[in-house]
Design brief:
154 residues; alpha+beta; Protein Transport Mog1p, Chain A; 7-stranded antiparallel sheet; 9 strands; 25% helix; 38% strand; signal
C-alpha cells in the first residue's frame, strides 16, 4: 500500500513539473547543419550525449523524458516516405503523416510515448525525437507540438 501511494505521489509530482510550471524556451541551433528548434530548457535540463550525425540529446533531470535534436545526411537522396521505410518502423504506429517535405510518426513503447519528426532539405534530414511517459501524454501535447512545428533546417 505504501508503494502504491508513493508511486501515485511521484506521478502527480512529475506531471505537475510539465504542466504547472511556466515553460522557458530558447532556440537551439546545430551550427554544422543549421537545424534549429524551440527547446524547452526548463524541462530538458541535462545534456545526454550526441546522436549520429550532428546534434545533441537532452533529458529531464529525473530521466523520465528525453529529446534528441539531430541532423543526418540523406546520402540516398530519399524521399521522406522511402527514408522512413528504410528505418523499418514498428508496425503498430499510432500516428503517421508523410508529405514530400517531412514525416511524423508516433506510438507507444512500453510505458513511453515516442514521437519522431524529420524535415527534409537538400541533402540533409533535420529531426527531433522525443520520448516521454505515456501517463503524462496530455500534459506533453502542447510542448511536443511547439517543438515539432518549430523544427527548421537549411
Amino acid at each position: 500500500m505504501k508503494s502504491t501511494v508513493a508511486l501515485a505521489l511521484a506521478l502527480v509530482a512529475s506531471t505537475a513539473t510539465v504542466s504547472a510550471q511556466p515553460v522557458r524556451w530558447t532556440r537551439y541551433t546545430i551550427p554544422q547543419s543549421g537545424t534549429s528548434v524551440d527547446l524547452p530548457t526548463s524541462i530538458f535540463t541535462e545534456a545526454a550525449g550526441r546522436p549520429d550525425g550532428y546534434g545533441q540529446r537532452f533529458r529531464t533531470a529525473d530521466g523520465r523524458a528525453d529529446l534528441t535534436i539531430q541532423t543526418v545526411p540523406n546520402t540516398g537522396h530519399d524521399s521522406p516516405a522511402s527514408f522512413l521505410a528504410k528505418k523499418d518502423p514498428p508496425s503498430r504506429i499510432q500516428y503517421k503523416r508523410v508529405t514530400p517535405r517531412f514525416f511524423v510518426v508516433s506510438s507507444y513503447k512500453g510505458d513511453k510515448v515516442w514521437y519522431d519528426r524529420c524535415n527534409f532539405s537538400g541533402r540533409l534530414v533535420h529531426c527531433v525525437l522525443i520520448n516521454y511517459p505515456a501517463e503524462e501524454e496530455h500534459d506533453w501535447d502542447d510542448i511536443v507540438t511547439r517543438i515539432s512545428l518549430s523544427l527548421t533546417g537549411r
